[in-house]
Amino acid sequence: MPATNPLQVSFEFFPPKTPEQEASLWAAIKRLEPLTSQFVSVTYGAGCGARDLTHNAVRRILNG
Description:
Layout: E1 10-13, H1 19-32, E2 39-42, H2 50-63
Parallel strand pairs: 1-2
């Protein structure tokens, strides 16, 4: 019997601060892609350039 309420998921990511974290983030996003999440969020930090890191990550996620 098919489920009447299929599982819906969302993901939250932290913006990468190092090249290693960036590689890890995009590898994780690629692995999670088949789950077709309802939405994703990228945690927004208030200081130390975190805003730019967050915006860059969001732009890249949106552009695939």
